[in-house]
Amino acid sequence: MELMAVNPHFTWLLYFPGMAFLLAGHGRDLLEEFRVALAEASAKPGEKHIHGLRVRMKKLRSLLRLADAMNTGNTAPKGAMRRMKALFKTAGEHRELVISAGVVAALATEDGQEAEAYLLHLGTRERKALKALRRALQDVREKDIVKLRTHLSVVANAHTRSQERRTARNHVDREMRKARQLVQEGARGEALHDVRKHLKNAWHTLRLLGDADTLTERQGDLLQRLGSIQESIGEWHDLQVVYDDLEEHQPAEEVAVLRKAVGSKLRGQRTRLMRELKRLGAA
C-alpha cells in the first residue's frame, strides 16, 4: 500500500466533548498511526516494521471489538475487516516462525545437527510466509482505512463518553471472569490458550481506557498486574508453538532430542505461569 495524504473530505471526523472519546478522537489517531505503519511495512517488511504494524493492529482490533460491543446496529465494513484479518493472520504466522527460530537457536541440545536441520526447515517456511505477508500488505487499501474511520465515527456519534467507558469496563470484567474460571478449572490442554486470549483482550481494552485517562484505581492496578504477566504468557506461548510444530514434524525421529528439550522447558514454564495466573485470580 502506498502512503497517501488523508482525504480532506473526512476531516469532519473529529472528537467533540461528550462523544465517545476512544472511538472518535483516539480511533482517528490510531488509524493514522496504522496507515503510516502499513506503508512502512509494505516498503520494508522487516521484523521491526512488522512488529510495529502488529502492535497497532492489536490496539485497533480492541477498539473495533469495543465498537461491536456497543451494539448500535452499525456493523464494520466487511471487505475492510476481511483484508485486515488476513493481514493480522499472515503477520502473526510470519512472526511465530521468526520467534520459533530464536527459541530453537537459544536451546542447548545434545544434537546440534538436529537443531540446525530444523532451523533450515523453519527458514524455508519463513520465506514462504513472508511472500504471503507481502501479498496481504498490498491487499489492504486506503479506502479500507477511510471506511473504518467512518464506522468508528458513526458509532461514536450514537454514544456518550460515559456509555463507552461503561461498555469497555463491562468487557474487561467479562473477559477476566472467563479467564479466572478456566484457571480455577486447571486450564488444561487448549484451555490455557483461551486464558491467554481473554487476558489479552482485557489488557488491551484497559490500555485503551488508560489512553483516555479514564481508569479507576482498581482498573489501574489490574492493568499493571496484567502487564507484568504478559512476559510469562509470551514465553509459554512461544514454547508451545515450537513444541506443537515439533509434534507434527515427520519423520518424528529427526527432531526427537530437540522435542524432548523443548518439552522439558515448556513444562517448567507452564508450571510457573499457572502459579502467576492463580495469584492473579485470587487478587
Average pLDDT for all residues: 85
CATH class, please?
A: Mainly Alpha
Q: In the CATH hierarchy, what is the superfamily?
A: CHAD domain
String of helices and strands: HHHHHHHHH
Provide a concise account of the structure shown.
78% of the residues lie in helices and 0% in strands. It is built from 9 helices and no strands.
Report what the structure shows.
- By secondary structure, this protein is an all-alpha fold.
- It has one domain (13-282): Alpha solenoid (CHAD domain), CATH 1.40.20.10.
- 78% of the residues lie in helices and 0% in strands.
- The chain contains nine helices and no strands.
- It has helices at 22-43, 47-69, 78-106, 112-139, 142-157, 161-184, 191-211, 217-248, 256-282.
- Helix 1 packs antiparallel against helix 5 (142-157), helix 2 (47-69) packs across helix 3 and helix 6 (161-184) runs antiparallel to helix 7.
- The chain starts with 21 loop residues before the first helix and ends with a helix.
Supply database-style keywords.
78% helix; 283 residues; CHAD domain; globular; 9 helices; mainly alpha; 0% strand
Write the layout of secondary structure elements.
Layout (H helix, E strand, L loop, with lengths): L21 H22 L3 H23 L8 H29 L5 H28 L2 H16 L3 H24 L6 H21 L5 H32 L7 H27 L1
Helix pairs in contact: 1-2, 1-5, 2-3, 2-7, 3-4, 3-5, 3-8, 6-7, 6-9, 7-8, 8-9
